[in-house]
Every structure is written in C-alpha cells, then in structure tokens.
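Re: that chain you flagged

S.,

Sorry for the slow reply, it's been a week of failed gels. I finally had a moment to sit down with the sequence you sent. For the record, here it is as I used it:
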Amino acid sequence: MTLRTRLIAATAATASVLSVSSCAAISVSALPPPGPSYSDGYDLVMQFQSVLNLPERAKVVLDGVTVGVVSKVSLSAREVDVTARLAHGVEVPSDIHAVLQQATVLGDIYVALERPRANATQAPPPGIPPAPALASGATIPISQTTSPPQLEDTIASLANFVSSGSIQRAQNTIVRLNRVAPPAAEIKVLTGRIKTDLSALANNLDSVDQVLNGLSDTAQNVSDRVPELQYLASPTGQRGAEHVSRVTNYVATVLPGIGSITLGGYWLVPFLNSLADATGALQESKLAGEAEIPKYRKVFNEMFLATDKYPAINIKSIIGPDGRELSGNVQDVLRILGATR
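Prediction finished late last night. Pasting the structure tokens below so you have them in one place:
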C-alpha cells in the first residue's frame, strides 16, 4: 500500500468518526417541538406533591383554552417544581388552583388552571378587589395544587372493589331481576296497555289542562282567602270551632230520637203531594193574575182615572122635546144646565 492510499484511508476514517460523533450529540429534545413556542411569554412555577408521568410540552389550560406548555420538571426536597411557559398577555390570578387532569382514561396528563368557584360564577363582592395577577417567575404553592392519585392507590381500590364481591352481587341482582320479570308475552301485553294509556292521555290533554287549571284556580282562591284561614287558625276561630263541635254533639244526641219518626214518617208523603199540588195551583193563579192585571189596569187608567184627572163633559149633540138641535145655541144650553139665567 502506497503512502497516498494510506493518507486517503486515514482521512476517510477521521471523517467517519467526526460524522458519527456529531450525530451522537444531536438529541430529540434539541429538535423544535410542534405547536406554538410561547417564546414571547413568561414562566410560572407550580409545586406538586407528585406529577406521575407528566411529560414535557404538556399543555396548560385556563378556562378551557390552552395558554401555555410545561417547559421543565424538576425535583426538590419535598415537592416537584413544574415550570410552565405561558403566552404573553395571559393573566393568572394569585388565587388560582392548579390540577393535573386527563381528558380520557388513556389520554396524556395536562395542567388545568382552575379559578376559585366563587370567582368563576359571580363577581367579587363590592369593595373587595379581585386577586392580583401573578408576575413572571412567580410560584403557585403546593397548597393551591392538586396531584393525581397514586397509581398504586387506584389499583388497590380497584382490587378491593373486585375482591369485595361487588361484581358478584351485581350479577346476582341481575339474575334475580330476570327471574322476577314476567314472561315475554305478559311484558308485551303490559307494554300494549301502557301504550294505550299514554295514547289516551295524549288524546285528552285538554282534560288534563282543565284539571290543572282547576287546581290553579283552587290554589288562587285559597291564596285569596288567606286572611279567613288565618282567622280560623287564630284563637278566636279555634274557640268558634269548639262551639260548633259542642252544638254538633248536642244535635247528634237528639237526631237518633227524631230518626225513628223520620224513618217511619210515610204519612208525610200525602202531605208533600198536597203541598206540591197547592204550590202548582198557586203558580197557575199567579200566571192567571199576571194575565188579568193588564186588563184591569187598562180599565182603571182609561175609564176612571182619566175622568178624575180631567173632569169635563164633551157635549156632541142636544135634541129638544120638539126634535130641534139645541147644541148650536150655547146660551140656551147653559141655561138648561143651570149654568146661566
């Protein structure tokens, strides 16, 4: 092998070693992650008791909107510090509560920033200012964070549930329900009756409305008579009710003695029949009187009352003994009547 060939082989080996070493220095974390980088934002530190498998770049959600990502997870003496990179302009109040949640059972864990329930549903009381916003680099203490339950605790709870016989009891309950349930034919008849009843109810909703309206009117009448009900419930009303009760007791004592007469009082039947006939005759007399009264009224008004009101004689013709008409000579007529001489 010549010197030139050796130099070429050494150069190629050196280049290979350099390229392999440079590739080994590249890591996945050095690659730019997908999604927004929030490079213009600020950092917040959240303290948790445990974070399980919270990954880097986990989303941070506030009011249902993604406002940042987890940029760093580090262990301290008694807690886990989770550094979150939030977008510029996002204000996080100092009374915020950080929770580690999962959207689904097998979904990734993310950080949810939850406002206090009183602040989330209503405005702060007058005179009390809202909680100030956290500054860049501030820390949310462990008292304001909630860690997810330990996986061991979850598995232990599931094991207790399975080993306690709850599944077997549920299965036995279903078996008993199947035994108690009637046969399919009876269920079909029952469902048919239910269908008929529901159809009848649907066809008579107007009657239901009338019933409801009646109940509403009754309730309204009761409401309008609240003063009377209050009076009945007052001491005076209770005293009156006591007096009525005493009178009722006396009447109840007397009624049995009268009852023997009333039960054997068949003699009242002819009396009641005669009373009915008399009432009918009186009614007919009333009708006859109502028909005759206008006639008598006409006689008195036109014959008697008119003469009494306007006493005068209307002389139409006067014939003398010799057959002559004397009504033309007024003076002679008045002399005959004695009015003049």
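What I noticed first: The mean pLDDT is 78.

Talk soon,
D.
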